[in-house]
């Protein structure tokens, strides 16, 4: 392949790399803060980092108090907290991130204001 042709093929990728890095930076910073809150069992910080109200648990949207009282003890039990420190964050096709620690998957992405949050969770076996 000739050098000019190779350059034409690679140039778009090189131009997209900084944009991709800018998109990844907020996600990576968010996940760093979120993992720290998980590790410390910081229910206040976890509530701040979650899309509330509206986070669904047992089919109902949760407010801050409900999230801290009902959701945190279930989704962030000691076994989950340990796994969440090391499990890789997968990049979804739409740019969101997910982390899987059986039996739960945690889904992250920008909220309506563009701030990264924990948006949802999935139980193993759900579509």
Ordered list of secondary-structure elements with their pairings:
Elements: H1 3-40, H2 43-48, E1 55-57, E2 60-62, H3 64-75, H4 78-86, E3 90-91, E4 97-101, E5 104-110, E6 116-123
Antiparallel strand pairs: 1-2, 3-4, 4-5, 5-6
Question: Which geometry do the CA atoms define?
Answer: globular
Structural class: alpha+beta
By CATH, the topology is Nuclear Transport Factor 2, Chain: A
Order of helices and strands: HHEEHHEEEE
Helix segment tally? 4
Low-confidence blocks of residues: 9-23
Structure, explained:
- The model is unreliable at 9-23 (pLDDT under 50).
- Helices cover 51% and strands 22% of the residues.
- The strands form two sheets. A four-stranded antiparallel β-sheet has the order 3-4-5-6. Strands 1-2 form a two-stranded antiparallel ribbon.
- The longest helix has 38 residues, at 3-40.
- It has 127 residues and is α+β, with helices and mostly antiparallel strands.
- A hairpin with a 5-residue loop joins strand 5 and strand 6.
- The protein has helices at residues 3-40, 43-48, 64-75, 78-86; strands spanning 55-57, 60-62, 90-91, 97-101, 104-110, 116-123.
- The N and C termini lie far apart (45 Å).
- The chain has one domain (26-123): Nuclear Transport Factor 2, Chain: A (Roll), CATH 3.10.450.
């Amino acid at each position: 392949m000739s050098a000019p042709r190779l350059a034409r093929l690679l140039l778009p990728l090189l131009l997209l790399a900084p944009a991709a890095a800018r998109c990844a930076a907020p996600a990576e910073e968010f996940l760093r803060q979120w993992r720290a809150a998980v590790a410390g069992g910081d229910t206040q910080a976890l509530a701040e980092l979650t899309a509330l109200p509206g986070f669904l648990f047992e089919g109902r949207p949760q407010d801050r108090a409900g999230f801290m009282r009902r959701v945190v003890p279930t989704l962030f039990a000691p076994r989950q907290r340990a796994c969440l420190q090391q499990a890789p964050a997968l990049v979804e096709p739409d740019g969101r991130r997910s982390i899987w620690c059986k039996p739960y998957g945690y889904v992250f992405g920008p909220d309506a204001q563009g701030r990264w949050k924990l948006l949802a969770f999935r139980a193993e076996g759900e579509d």
